[in-house]
Design a protein that fits this description.
Elements lengths: L25 E7 L5 H17 L3 E7 L4 H11 L3 E4 L10 H8 L3 E2 L4 H8 L1 H10 L7 E5 L4 H5 L7 E5 L9 E3 L5 H9 L4 E6 L4 E8 L2 E2 L3 E5 L6 H5 L4 E4 L6 H17 L5 E8 L5 E7 L9 H8 L4 H15 L1
Parallel strand pairs: 1-2, 1-3, 3-4
Antiparallel strand pairs: 5-8, 6-7, 6-8, 9-10, 9-11, 9-13, 11-12, 13-14
């Protein structure tokens, strides 16, 4: 068996020449926010800030503590930054809101633009696009909080199934439901985080993820949680999950997974980087779960792990994202 393909490192965009750190101007690392992913965002932001600082960049850490537009414009203006490095996960960071503010201020920023961020954050909207273009997604139903009871009571579900908010990441509010008597509890928990939720088929198989950097797919990573499901605890508790980088896949399967990940990235109009989470079923068909436009950015997060296989270390990854921010602007 030929083990997973390792592609050549993507070349930097020629539009931006190599510079010394000071020539990039002042970089503001935006982190925190008020979403359910605040603590994860702070870890990403601090990792980026420390790496840029050690590399000699003029960098400032900016903790976003309000979603008020005027207050954030004032904060960013007073920080006198030239480029925003976005490490904001969840609402306000990945849903196009902060991107719209930065564009209004004519500031360069890392990652995807307004429309792509909104689409990727909304699992329902993005799945409709994927399905229309022939990519596999799990069978699912959308449930709105306003009138869900009658719809749920009359539906004959096959178990196990997955219940999750439509616009959250990090497995927050997600439940794997194995018995009918537990479904309402799972639904109520998901509704704590969102007005719309998804109830989808549970696909047994191998969980994989593919980072995209500079419009090229990175090596596939396989995720092996030590508990049955890759939930919030498995993601963020030390020692709870093993990661195989690159995944032990036949070369043809690895290429197909990378192809679908890049297709999902492009269909949403993502830019710079993303991470596409997928399930491989028993036939090695890939089902797209979601696209993360601001993936975790600690040195041990999945996108940096995949980049390191191509000998792109953490600071090089950060610099690539900054270069692309200026190229986009």
């Amino acid at each position: 068996m030929e083990i997973g393909r390792v592609i050549k490192p993507p070349a930097c965009r020629p539009a931006v020449k190599a510079r010394s750190p000071k020539e990039f101007g002042r970089i503001g690392v935006l982190m925190g926010g008020l979403s359910s992913e605040r603590e994860i965002s702070l870890k990403s932001g601090q990792a980026v800030y420390k790496s840029l600082k050690q590399a000699g960049f003029d960098v400032i850490a900016i903790d976003i503590r309000t979603e008020n537009k005027k207050e954030n414009i004032r904060l960013l203006h007073n920080s006198r930054i030239d480029c925003a490095f976005l490490a904001l996960h969840g609402h306000f960071g990945e849903d196009g809101v902060i991107q719209e503010i930065l564009e209004g201020m004519n500031l360069a920023y890392t990652g995807s633009g307004v429309d792509a961020s909104r689409l990727a954050m909304d699992k329902i909207a993005s799945r409709k696009i994927f399905s229309a273009k022939g990519l596999n997604v799990p069978r699912y139903m959308q449930v709105d909080k306003a009138a869900y009871a009658a719809k749920i009571d009359s539906h004959n579900f096959n178990f196990p199934l997955v219940v999750k908010p439509a616009t959250h990441g990090s497995s927050i509010g997600l439940s794997i439901v194995e018995k009918k008597e537990n479904i309402k509890k799972a639904i109520n928990m998901a509704f704590v985080f969102d007005e719309r939720i998804i109830i989808e088929e549970y696909i047994p198989g191998r969980e994989v993820t593919v980072g995209v950097l500079e419009e090229e797919p990175l090596p596939v990573i396989e995720i092996l949680p030590k508990k049955r499901f890759f939930d919030y605890e498995a993601k963020y508790s030390k020692g709870m999950t093993e990661y195989i980088v690159p995944a032990h896949l036949e070369a043809s399967v690895a290429r197909a997974v990378q192809h679908d990940a890049l297709a999902a990235h492009k269909l949403l109009g993502c830019y710079g980087c993303s991470r596409v989470d997928m399930i491989l079923d028993k036939t090695n068909s890939a089902f797209i779960l979601e696209v993360n436009t601001i993936p975790g950015l600690t040195k041990t997060s999945l996108l940096p792990k995949a980049a390191s296989v191509l000998r792109i270390d953490f600071i090089q990854l950060c610099i690539k994202l900054i270069k692309m921010a200026y190229a986009k602007k």
